[in-house]
Design goal:
The complex is a heterodimer of chains A (169) and B (83). Chain A has seven helices and five strands; from the N terminus they run ααααβββααββα. Chain A has 169 residues and is of the alpha+beta class. Chain A has a three-stranded antiparallel sheet, covered by helices on one side. Chain B is extended, with a radius of gyration of 17 Å. The N and C termini of chain B lie far apart (37 Å). Chain B has 83 residues and is mainly alpha-helical. In chain B, 29% of the residues lie in helices and 4% in strands. The chains are: A alpha+beta (169), B mainly alpha (83).
């Protein structure tokens, strides 16, 4: 079990926000109109994030990475959905997370964010569903084991469990 | 954002994805986020199979809120890997 994934995701949000804001700091002042308004607001929030929060988030990150390493003593790869459901439509503002309607932007990465937070290699493989759209399943490997994730994906491809196909759905 | 950035190539098959990964490997001294690791090509070993590999399914956070389809997709992969 990978504990505290919810906190890990929150910490990832904080670091993304602070780092992104830092990266675009100058342009936010000189060319604010060039930014997507929703993204710009997130950067503005990032500019005001206390340094202590960002440092705390990095601490949690190290702890969470260690928890994942512990898990990989018992398994070689981990599996999780890539998204809560099939792909949203372009411009679709909300998705369902369980019984709750939530913001697409803030929640589409609910299962990927805690994993990318600690830099684990992932291959997302497409599994076809009854609704004629695929769902990505994350094949997650230990640090630097990209080859393992790709090998597992290749096996799934060979056996027809996961396939890329064009859809007109 | 060298702290959190991730490369995410898309490909139509795993071989292409592995080739992309192999091409992206290698140290870049001008990029402080780039680890000084040896290049370890993987695209030629995709056929090795997964004999003896143990897979686990992440639960709790990673299933809460997921649609039935998403859970079924994970289940399909897990079964194929002998979980």
């Amino acid at each position: 079990m990978l504990p505290e994934a919810r906190r890990a995701r929150a910490a990832a949000f904080c670091i993304t926000s602070a780092s992104g804001a830092q990266l675009h700091r100058q342009r936010l002042h000189t060319r604010p109109q060039d930014f997507d308004p929703v993204t710009r607001d997130r950067f503005y929030a990032g500019l005001r994030l206390p340094a202590t929060v960002a440092i705390q988030a990095q601490r949690l990150r190290r702890w969470f990475a260690a928890a994942a390493s512990e898990l990989f003593r018992h398994v070689d790869v981990l599996l999780a959905p890539a998204t809560p459901g099939t792909a949203p439509l372009i411009g679709q503002k909300t998705i369902m997370l369980g019984d709750t309607e939530v913001s697409t932007r803030q929640n589409i990465g609910v299962y990927t964010q805690p994993i990318s937070f600690i830099g684990l290699p992932v291959v997302a493989v497409p599994v076809w569903t009854a609704s004629r759209l695929p769902i990505g399943v994350q094949v997650i490997a230990p640090p630097w084991q990209e080859g393992l994730a790709l090998r597992v994906a290749a096996q799934l491809e060979r056996t027809g469990v996961c396939t890329v196909r064009k859809t007109d759905a | 954002m060298d702290d959190l950035d991730h490369l995410g190539p898309f490909a139509g098959n795993v071989q292409d994805l592995a080739l992309a990964y192999d091409l992206m490997q290698g140290h870049d001294a001008g990029d402080r986020a780039c680890a000084a690791r040896m290049v370890d090509p993987v695209s030629s070993s995709l056929a090795q199979g997964v004999e003896g590999i143990r897979a686990g399914v992440l639960l709790e956070w990673f299933e809460a809120g997921a649609s039935d389809e998403a859970l079924a997709a994970v289940e399909t992969v897990a079964r194929a890997l002998g979980v």
